[in-house]
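Aim 2, interim progress. The first record below pairs a target sequence with its C-alpha cells.
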Amino acid sequence: MRRAVFSIPYSLIIGGREFSPDLISSITISKSLSGIGNGGIVTQQLSASVYADFSFLAGESVTVVGFDGLPKFYIDGENRTEDTVNITAYDRCRKLSQPFDYTSLKDGDKVDENGDPVFLDISASGLAEKIAAQCGFSGASNTGDILIGIVSSDVYKGAACNSLLENLASASGCFVCCGTDNA
C-alpha cells in the first residue's frame, strides 16, 4: 500500500474511525454559493481519498480534526480504487433542498372560501428557526437581529427550504452557512 510522504497537521474522523495524516492520500474542501450575490446559502464540500480496505455508508459523518472553523460533513457518495476510498461529503446545508413542512403553521380549524386550510403568517426569523429544526440544524443563530419582516403562507407553501432561505438571505443582505456547532 502506497502512503503519503508529506506531513499534514490534521486528521479525519469518518464514521467514527480516525484517519491519521499518513492514511490520507488527498483532501479538498470547497465552498459554493447559491443566490443572487447579495445573499444566499454557502454549502461546503469535502472530497477526500483515504487508505482503507472497507467502504463507508452514505450519511456517515466526517470531521476534520486540527482545522478550526469547519462544520461536520456527511458522506454523499464514495468510490473505491485498489487501496483507497474516495468520498464526497457535504455540510448540513445540502439537506436544505427538501420541501418546507408548513403543516405546523395551520391556523386551527379555519378554512378559506374553497374549504382549504388557512395557514398563519410567520416572522422571517421564526421561519428560519422552523427550517433549521426540520433540516437537522441545532438552531438558526443570530437571525432575530438580521431577519425582519413577516412571511405569508402564499410564499412558503410548496417551497423548498433552500429557496426560502435564499430569499430571506438576499432580502436581508446576509449569507446562510453551517457553523462548527451545526447551527
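The second target in this work package is listed in the same format:
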Amino acid sequence: MSYRDEVWGRDGNTRWGNLLDASFDHLRKVSPGCKVDDSSFDVDKNGLYLFGDPAWKSYELKFGVQIVEGANAQIRLRLSESLKRWYTVDFLFGWQALGIARVDNEPNGKGHQKLSVVNLEMVRLREYKVEIAVRDLSITTYVDGKLINQATDETLTSGPVGFCAWEAVARFRQPQFRVLG
C-alpha cells in the first residue's frame, strides 16, 4: 500500500505533515535518549519521542525505521496522559515478527497483551518503510507496501504517538503524520 498524498473529508483536505518540522514544536516532547537531526531521530532504550495531542482519535503515520542495535523498535499509539497505557506496534527482532499489543501498566492493569503478531523477516540496519493507520477502533500496519497486521480494540480511544526502543537503538527517518479526526 502507498498512501495517497491527499485525503478529503468533511473538513476538507488533509495533507501529510513532517514530525520534525519546527512549526509542530508545541506537539512534541523529546526525552534524553533521543538524537534528532533534520530528517531523522535515533531513540535508545531510555528515549521517548512523544508527538501529538491527547485528543487525536484517528491518524496515519509513515516513516522509515532501522534497528541499529539490540532488540525492538516500537511505536506507541494512543498514549494515555499518565504514559502508562497505550497500544504498541512492536518490531520483535528476536521473534522475527511485527506485533500490535495493548499495554496497561496502571495499578491492577493487565500489563502487555498481544492483539496481533505476524512473522516478518528483519535484518539489522536495513530500513523498512512503515505505514500505520489508526482509525476509530482499528490499527493497521504496512511494511514495504505489504499489509502485515490488523487489530480492532475499543480500550483506548485517543492520544498521541511515542517512538521508542526496547533494549535497542532504533532510527526513524522522514517521519510524517496526518490527523483524520
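The mean pLDDT is 92. This observation will shape the mutagenesis plan for the next reporting period.
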